[in-house]
Amino acid sequence: MQFTSFLENGKLTIALNGEIDHHCAKQYIQSIAAKIEAYTPDICILDFQEVSFVDSSGIAVVINALRNMSQIEGRLMLSGISDQPMRVFRASGIDKIVEIKEAVS
Hints:
By secondary structure, the chain is of the alpha/beta class. The longest helix is centred in the middle third of the chain and has 16 residues, at about 55-70. It has 4 helices and 5 strands, in the order E-E-H-E-H-E-H-H-E. Helix 1 (about 25-40) packs parallel to helix 2. The relative contact order is 0.19. A 5-stranded mixed sheet has the order 1-2-3-4-5.
C-alpha cells in the first residue's frame, strides 16, 4: 500500500494506487483517517487515477473517509475513477452519496 497526499488551500488530495482489497484496506482506512485528523481539510479528494481494482473493501475505505470528513463538517470527493472501480461504486450506491469529480474511460 502506497499513496501520496498533499494539502493546498484547505483541500487534501490523497492519490491512491494499485489494488484496494482486503489485504490493504485497513491500512488505507487508518492512514486516510490520520491525514484527515492531522490536516482537518475542508475538502478531501480521494484520487483513484492509479487504482486498477477495488472490491467491497474499497467501499469501506470510501465510507470511512466519508465518516471522517462528516465529523469535521467537510466534504469528500472522488476523482479519476476507472471502469472497474466505477462499476463497484455504482453497484454499491457510493456514487449517490459521494461527489464524483470526474470519470475516466
